[in-house]
């Protein structure tokens, strides 16, 4: 479906912009300075306008928009990733008998768009992290075909370093307090098993997990020597929750 749509969009551009030519500036400069250069033959007949999604001009304009936010509001306060789950009821209930989610990319795209709009409404209007000055996001596709978004938020009240643990951690929630959230994290956000339990895992290289699991316990979030954060992961005696890994 996506290939058909993009093919039609490219055909429209191909048949309606024949009078325009395009070429990289370095090649244009070489042609002008060359004594035998034929400028009338330089370049291509088809130009992808900025209205063509993911084209070079489109991406350049979106980059300039993002930099405008940076210049005006400074660095964003939060970077949030939101990934499509092919087991969402909104997707599964619309599949025909015998179909898998990867057979219906149209359903995945529609369900994901609705979820993203709701997510952005919660973030921008629900004041989950406080009042939001502005936001932006970009949609990308994983190799397995599922979409995900990267979201940037600029907050009116900046998050202080001592408040980081109130925003993010790498701990299991209490299943008695929030069983739904516990089940989501248990089934979709736990790495492995790897290490000595599963030495054939794709993350293993020379007997070591390339993702650096299993992580050490920490009472609070710290900054590692490489600049990456080491999130809070409390031990059971400090109030953390552990789960037995099943192969």
From TrEMBL:
The keyword Nucleotide-binding applies. PANTHER family: ATP-DEPENDENT DNA HELICASE, DNA BINDING PROTEIN-LIKE. This is ATP-dependent DNA helicase. Keywords: ATP-binding, Helicase, Hydrolase, Nucleotide-binding. Residues 227-247 are annotated as: Disordered. It holds the Pfam family Helitron_like_N. One of its GO terms (molecular function) is helicase activity. It comes from Trichonephila clavata (Joro spider). The keyword Transcription does not apply. InterPro entries: Helitron_helicase-like. The lineage of its organism: Eukaryota, Metazoa, Ecdysozoa, Arthropoda, Chelicerata. Residues 1-153 form the Helitron helicase-like domain.
